[in-house]
Specification:
membrane; signal; two-stranded antiparallel ribbon; 15-stranded mixed β-sheet; 7 helices; Acetoacetate decarboxylase-like; transmembrane helix; transmembrane; globular; Peptidase A1 domain-containing protein; alpha+beta; 357 residues
């Protein structure tokens, strides 16, 4: 498990300031009473200023000011630091596994996505109303993967969970949670076969400004949110089901999952999710995000094998125009490492039709 740094104990600022002033007064008194170190130490003494004596052995007034400076710095660092540093996320303990691939791809952003992935069938006519008119829906592309998908329906992707252990070069990026509806199999380039995924809105951990700014740079509408659980993809309810919830002022997404006995009970194979989640992502079409998800790693095998679920979703996050409720939605809970290439020209991603990872 990854543990965030513990938050230092804090005291009310007024009490801390009074304590600091009392300490300074005591040090001033000691400085006045202390004999001058220059008069009681011979020039040949190893503790003499001529020999570079330690600051605690120097004259009383010097000692006073140096200790005062240290005390002031300590006070400022404890009580004037940004409030964001003392968020609940700092003490959160996640159950996510460490990033297993950062040493293999040191020049790329990598991390772990512990997500619930679910497919929501909606009427094709509704999808056409929501998706910008300039992007054709490549119905033949998803029907070639899901021949039995209901007629005149379109597969919306739900992603909800936790981004963990994100690394780039020597840098690490704080964990964050996110959720949103995404619209795959779109013809962004107008070539009739390259598939892209439109992700217009997201709920993202409010304290992670870097994640919010990075998403907004694509044109995404971001709702800075609080999540339950704070730093995991889901938590367990008393009856055995799991849940995940995001709230941002009046915007919300509430999910409850029922674990299923077998992957065969999910009408969409894992290979379909593999295809969809590896489609390049866009919002306004100016730049694209290439998120390469690796489904064949130890993070999704053995104890960590994909867990089939049936979900209930209640949300009022866009681009759906009204509050929505979906029941009997099928998917998987799965952790995958990822490799990410940001802010690419969408033309460079021409030709994607399926994942081979």
């Amino acid at each position: 498990q990854h543990r965030h740094p513990p938050v230092l104990p804090s005291f009310p600022p007024l009490l801390a300031l009074l304590a600091l002033l009392a300490l300074l007064a005591l040090l001033a008194l000691l400085a006045v009473m202390a004999p001058n170190a220059h008069t009681r130490l011979s020039p040949s003494s190893p503790m003499s200023p001529a020999f570079g004596a330690p600051w605690v052995a120097r004259p009383g007034h010097t000692f006073f000011w140096q200790v005062s400076l240290v005390a002031i710095i300590a006070f400022l660092s404890l009580h004037l630091r940004p409030t964001a540093a003392a968020t609940a996320e700092d003490t959160c303990v996640t159950h996510d596994q460490p990033n297993p691939i950062f040493q293999d791809y040191p020049n790329n952003a990598t991390g772990v996505l512990n997500m619930t992935l679910a497919i929501i069938p909606i009427p094709l006519a509704t999808a056409r109303q929501i998706i910008p008119a300039q992007y054709a829906i490549l119905e033949s592309a998803y029907r070639s993967l899901l021949p039995s998908f209901p007629a005149d329906m379109y597969p919306v992707l739900l992603q909800a969970g936790h981004d963990h252990d994100i690394r780039y070069l020597e840098f690490t990026i704080p964990d964050f949670s996110r959720s949103g509806f995404e619209f795959p199999f779109l013809d962004l380039l107008g070539d009739g076969y390259s598939v892209f995924r439109w992700a217009p809105e997201q709920m993202i951990t409010a304290s992670n400004k870097g994640a919010i700014d990075g998403s907004e740079a694509y044109g995404t509408v971001v709702h800075p949110s609080t999540f339950a659980p704070q730093c995991d993809a889901y938590a367990t309810l008393s009856g055995g089901n799991t849940f995940f919830k995001a709230t941002s002022n009046s915007t919300y997404m509430s999910l409850e999952y029922n674990r299923l006995p077998s992957c065969k009970t999910v009408p969409y194979p894992l290979s379909f999710f593999k295809n969809v989640t590896n489609q390049p992502i866009f919002v306004n079409g100016k730049q694209c995000d290439q998120m390469i998800r690796l489904f064949d790693t130890p993070l999704s095998k053995g104890t960590f094998a994909p867990a089939p679920v049936k979900a209930k979703i209640e949300a009022n996050v866009g681009p759906f125009p009204d509050a929505t409720s979906f029941k009997g939605v099928f998917g998987f809970q799965i952790a995958t490492p990822f490799i990410e290439n940001n802010y690419l020209s969408c033309d460079t991603l021409k030709g994607y039709q399926g994942a081979n990872l």
